[in-house]
UniProtKB/TrEMBL annotation:
Lineage: Bacteria, Pseudomonadati, Pseudomonadota, Gammaproteobacteria, Pseudomonadales
Organism whose genome encodes this protein: Ectopseudomonas oleovorans
Protein name in the entry: Cytochrome bd-I ubiquinol oxidase subunit 1 apoprotein
Keyword annotations from UniProtKB, A to Z: Cell membrane, Electron transport, Heme, Iron, Membrane, Metal-binding, Transmembrane, Transmembrane helix, Transport
Signal peptide: none
Family: Belongs to the cytochrome ubiquinol oxidase subunit 1 family.
Stretches that traverse the bilayer: 12-35, 56-77, 97-120, 127-148, 184-208, 220-237, 321-346, 358-378, 407-430
Length: 479
């Protein structure tokens, strides 16, 4: 179909579905922790500002969580439908790891999510806060198991090959494989940053429209403190992750750098921009800085970085793609650091909430965290090619063998359904954001009596209240 082979369509289908899915867990991870912080601050200080923000963002969390669960189910089924050879070969490792996620993280979240969303006036404040914290911990436990499985595919260890299948012999080595700590830290931090800029952009949107009140200011301030503190940490984690990748997946680093060959004993330059040409085996139109590649990747001017020509053509990733996805990720990270530093300067002059050029930048940076996450995942997954399990199984050997027609039809259906379903969900979340927090949104009221609102029967209904167009949507005039 369209000149694409069945394997290409299977990969595109998986990439499409996971690109949609990863947006929701990333925001879920960040918002869950943000909600725990807000509720904790309210309990500690008694400041109802934190309570109102908690109730505002809990509605958005409910919608986002629901879409994450739905999109995640599709991912699990694809391992059996499109990648059955992979599941047959490595299922003894990946299957239990994903099962552990369900038994720990999913059950923990399911057990406390209802209390968190609907128990505000039905349980004590301590128990409700405990429920929020448990949901937040559950999202991080889920990240732990998913990243353990994915990292093992990049740096497999703790196994034996028996009768053509992977058999785990050391679960500690399987879980805590060489790349796992770096991937876990990198992804969790990325989720926090993505959420921070989502929250910050929401506040900037309201401030640019004249809705200047303590709640909106608090949203912006907390988001920018997160950017200032965490974005540089993320850069440091990324550097450690790069060193780990250089050690265990040097071909990926060569593709990311667009570096084709070393010259004598000269240190490796850093190519800032260019166009890696896989056919001509060179990076065209390159702009480079001498020796900086060696300094960044080896922390030395005496060592060289492996080059693409050091590896057989069939073992090289598509440098044209990963060269640019990596630079998009880095650009987003540098912009986050810049925004954090600029916010500190504006705080000193008491212009953080009024300087419109800065607010416009924060607004435009709203999707930057998601863009960085997607670019980072494209880099690491495309950079792993041609392997689905590095050094053990090639992607070409992992598919189920469906025809191009079958995969093309299902891909088209996925595109239509996903854009309709999740497009509507994202639009609904943005509509909630536009409403803004309300005065005394969390104030205790009676529920369930005649003529009164009853406890919602499904999670997404936690976000249904307060969407009338004529409703006051912000904390205007609050002192």
């Amino acid at each position: 179909m369209f000149g694409l082979e069945a394997l290409d369509l299977a990969r595109i289908q998986f990439a499409f579905t996971i690109s949609f899915h990863i947006v929701f867990p990333a925001i879920t991870i960040g918002l869950a922790s943000y909600l725990a912080v807000l509720e904790g601050l309210w309990l500690k200080t008694g400041n109802t500002l934190y309570r109102d923000l908690y109730h505002f963002w809990s509605k958005i969390f409910a919608v986002n969580f629901g879409m994450g669960v739905v999109s995640g189910l599709v991912m699990a089924y694809q391992f059996g439908t499109n990648w059955s050879a992979f599941s047959d070969f490595a299922g003894a490792v990946t299957g239990p790891l994903l099962t552990y996620e369900v038994l720990t993280a999913f059950f923990l979240e399911a057990g406390f999510l209802g209390v968190m969303l609907f128990g505000w006036n039905r349980v004590g404040p301590g128990l409700h806060f405990f429920s929020t914290v448990m949901v937040a911990i559950g999202t991080l436990i889920s990240t732990f198991w998913i990243l353990a499985s994915n990292s093992w595919m990049h740096t497999p260890q703790g196994f034996e090959i028996v009768d053509g299948r992977v058999i785990p012999v050391d679960w500690f080595a399987v879980v805590f494989n060489p790349s796992f700590p770096y991937r876990l830290a990198h992804m969790a931090t990325a989720a926090f940053l993505a959420t921070a800029f989502f929250v910050g952009a929401s506040a900037a949107w309201h401030l640019l429209r004249g809705r200047d009140n303590p709640a909106i200011r608090k949203m912006l301030s907390m988001a920018l403190w997160m950017a200032l503190l965490v974005a540089p940490i993320q850069a440091f984690i990324g550097d450690l992750h790069g060193l780990n990748t250089l050690k265990y997946q040097p071909a990926k680093i060569a593709a990311i750098e667009g570096h084709w060959e070393n010259v004598g004993d000269e240190p490796t330059p850093l190519i800032l921009f260019g166009w890696p040409d896989m056919q001509r085996e060179e990076t065209r139109f390159k702009v480079e800085i001498p020796a900086l590649g060696s300094l960044i990747l080896t922390h030395s001017l005496d060592k060289q970085v492996p080059a693409l020509k050091d590896f057989p053509p069939e073992d090289r990733a598509n440098s044209t793609i990963v060269f640019w996805t990596f630079r998009v990720m880095v650009a987003m990270g540098l912009m986050m650091i810049f925004v954090g530093l600029w916010s500190t300067w504006l705080r000193r002059g008491d212009r953080l909430y009024t300087y419109r050029p800065f607010l416009h930048l924060v607004l435009w940076m709203g999707p930057s965290g998601i863009i960085a996450i997607l670019a980072g995942w494209y880099t690491t997954e495309i950079g792993r090619q041609p392997w689905i399990i590095h050094g053990l199984m090639r992607t070409a050997d992992a598919s189920s063998g469906h025809s191009a027609t079958q995969l093309g039809i299902t891909l088209a259906l996925f595109v239509v359904v996903y854009f309709a379903l999740f497009g509507a969900g994202i639009g609904y979340m943005l509509r909630l954001v536009r409403k803004g927090p309300k005065i005394d949104e969390g104030k205790e009221t009676s529920q369930g009596g005649p003529g009164q609102a009853r406890t919602p029967a499904r999670p997404l209904s936690a976000a249904e209240e307060g969407l009338d167009d004529g409703e006051t949507d912000t904390l205007e005039g609050r002192n």
